[in-house]
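Consortium newsletter contribution from the modelling node. Members have asked for a concrete example of what our holo predictions look like. Here is one, prepared for the D-glucarate complex that several groups have been discussing at recent meetings.
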Amino acid sequence: MIIRDVRLTPIAFRDPPLLNVTGVHEPYATRCIVEIETATGRVGINETYGDKSTYVDLATIAPALVGLNIYDMAGLAAAVRNSIGGAARSEYEMAPGTLSKTAFARCFAAFEVACLDLQGQLCGRPICDLLGGKYRDAVPYSAYLFFKFGGHRDQPNTVDDEWGEVLTPEALLWEARTMVARHGFRSLKLKAGVLSPEAEVAALRMLHQEFPDHPLRMDPNYGWTVETTVKVAHALEGILEYLEDPAKGLTSSRRIAAAINIPIASNMAVTSFEDLPEVVTANAIRIILSDHHYWGGLRATRELGRICDVWGLGLSMHSNSHLGISLMAMTHVAASIPNLTYDCDTHYPWQVDDVIEGGRLRFENGCIRVPSEPGLGVRLDQAKLKELHENHKNFIREDRDDVAEMRKYQPDWAGTLPRY
Ligand code: GKR
Ligand code: MG
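And here is the predicted structure:
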């Protein structure tokens, strides 16, 4: 089954003013939609990063895919490598302050998922079966809680933002109640490093009181010093399931791990296979947040699961602002990994747009049902794609910049880390 065309469509979708330690989300988030068409006219799809440098890399690779067989993943790897070189060319800020080391993994993943979608369509099986089969029928996600502004500074009407301003522990509790009532989430994660550590500890205590059976997590994206982290961890012992990327560097993680009883998780210190030996040796980070978008695709993520199992590391899943195609890919791979034992992260409830047929996906009891339809189990809505592509044309910016966006609210904002 030969590839005859590869289409890349950059899109922009509405995003609320969510706060993190480096700043605030812009009115639109960007993604790139990948379509791979075979000689017989069948189309496989995927969703990946929408920054300019990723787009340039993908567009450089795309012509080399024409003529390739959709089953030839070694050929795909060679095409990616030969087109952009092995070294990192594009650097994408995956989390505030973390640049992806390998453009290769990100670009390979962008096309791998679309090829797997095609393979699944052709053999009539869902992608999770191509990954070895599913270990669960539904994948649980956590409620991703953010402090946020009530509206975007320069475009107050961009998002019909029903969430309003959330800048206090009480407002956060309301946000959590709404998320849980609406989607049934059974664990909660706070994007931390935004309010003072004391206020965030108070927020977590309130959440624990209200939801005693929901595992809780906090992620300040390197926003704290070692000392602050230790204080927060002591205050929240017995309450937190894990603490994610509290302070920068493995040396900090080692000092923290020696002083606290809460496991440290990371999607910033560990972003590729080459990071694993040092992380395993340091024995400070105990949980890795996978993400097929930058770990090299769905099969590579499954391999990461096996490595974590061998080394006794926990495995969870990271997310960035994304739409339904990504959510489906995340669901297939999460279903196929026996030891992915933590509820996965997702930004999906914060989005109002999508590009898939049939409207937005629904969580049931905090879970997304693993599709049994062939391939990814979702299809592109071409009219929606066109609409969100038009947004992209109007929303001129090359890369996500939460720091610059925050300066619209606070002109002297530096976004430097650690913050507390
Ligand atoms: O959306 O502001 C955000 C998050 O901070 C995101 O950029 C991170 O990549 O969710 C991510 C994380 O867990 O670090
Ligand atoms: Mg994180």
